[in-house]
Amino acid sequence: MCISLGNCFKVEHWRGDLDKTSIFNCLLASKLVKRCIICSWTKPDTRRFKLNVDGSSKGNPDISGGEGILRNDSGDMLFAFTRDYGRHSSLLSEFRALLEGLKVCLSYNIKGILIESDSKCLINMISTGSWPWYLSAIGESIVTLMASIEAVLHHVFRVSNSAADWLANFGVQCLHDQDFSSLEHDHLRSLCAIVKLDTDGVSFIRNRYSSLSFSVPQVM
After folding, report:
1. Could you give the CA distance from residue 25 to residue 194 in angstroms, rounded to a whole number?
2. Domain RNase H type-1, which positions (predicted)?
3. Model pLDDT for residues 99-115, shown as the tens digit of each residue
4. What does the domain layout of the chain look like in residue ranges?
């Protein structure tokens, strides 16, 4: 007969001693542990630029749009855009937003760009060159443009992509294409505040849950 004493042990009792579980003939289990991660938007290196992009869809598929904001090494906004894509999925919107941002950078002859997105799916697909068939044309265009303007794509948490995220919500409410070269508009006050916080390096806390292994002794 096997008697479990799992309820008698807490995870703290075994933390750091997992290598000793075999001595006691223990079974492994796991528990979700909350970890706090400090996140912030950071300025690009000197004479470099950073493009934050985001795509959104209110119903997936439903009203969708793509948005982006480009800033220099001082954190100043050079331009921002919102695009209305009609009824599409969020993944398609993410791809189109990235492509639009690259095209705008190309039109301004801006190179050496660090691109940030909070879509892991987008970044994984672009990095591996593997995407659904209906995104083939857009995906190939993205890869070509990234090479031509020396762009690098990185993942960030949403709290570090707040400016693009705000534009995403703003864009699907307006339902038409818009371009901005200045933050001096009444309806952009919230975006102006976000850009100021980013430039000042204000940090935010993001809770992340991960699996922590521990041991549950079994008595025969």
Report:
1. 54
2. 52-170
3. 999 999 999 999 999 99
4. 3-38+210-219, 49-202
Residue 21 has pLDDT above 60, yes or no: no
Quick: pLDDT tens for 131-168.
Answer: 999 999 999 999 999 999 999 999 999 999 999 999 98
Q: What is the pTM of this model?
A: 0.78
Give residue 38's pLDDT band: very low, low, confident or very high (50, 70, 90). Answer: confident
CATH number corresponding to 49-202: 3.30.420.10
Q: Are 214 and 19 in contact (CB under 8 A)?
A: no
Tokens of 142: 């993205």
Instruction: Give the strand pairing for 204-219 and 3-4.
Output: antiparallel
Return the pLDDT at 34. Answer: 67
Q: Measuring CA to CA, which residue among 58, 2, 19, 35 is closest to residue 215?
A: 19
Distance of CA 194 to the CA centre of its chain: 16
Strands (DSSP E) found in the chain: 3-4, 26-39, 49-57, 62-71, 77-88, 113-117, 151-155, 178-180, 204-219
How far is CA 111 from each of CA 31, 50, 62, 138, 167, rounded to the nearest angstrom? 46, 10, 34, 20, 23
82 close to 164: Cβ distance less than 8 angstroms: no
